[in-house]
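Entry details:
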Amino acid sequence: VQLQASGGGLVQAGGSLRLSCAASGVPFSTNAMGWYRQAPGKQRELVAIISSAGRANYADFVKGRFTISRDNAKNTVYLQMYSLKPEDTAVYYCMYNWGIRDYWGQGTLVTVSS
């Protein structure tokens, strides 16, 4: 199982970024995928999750600003982030849920400057 996240970087407050996570070695279309983040000194937290049917759920702190989507033909999940805030600064991880186990990508750093 491999999850390769990309798209992070440095952006000014109010800007946007799109994260991508390409999965391999998994039956991608049949399971949920999600994005989590971990800021320095804080615990990892859920940002958004999307079911195999495309149903999305979001943490309250990103509702209306972030959109999760998936392209099953490309085995890829995306996180489109708008109106970024300095408090969104974190390492963002993609997660693939396969039965009772979750698989994690290596993370991509998002830094939002004020």
Q: What stands out?
A: The first strand starts at residue 2 and ends at 6. The radius of gyration is 13 Å.
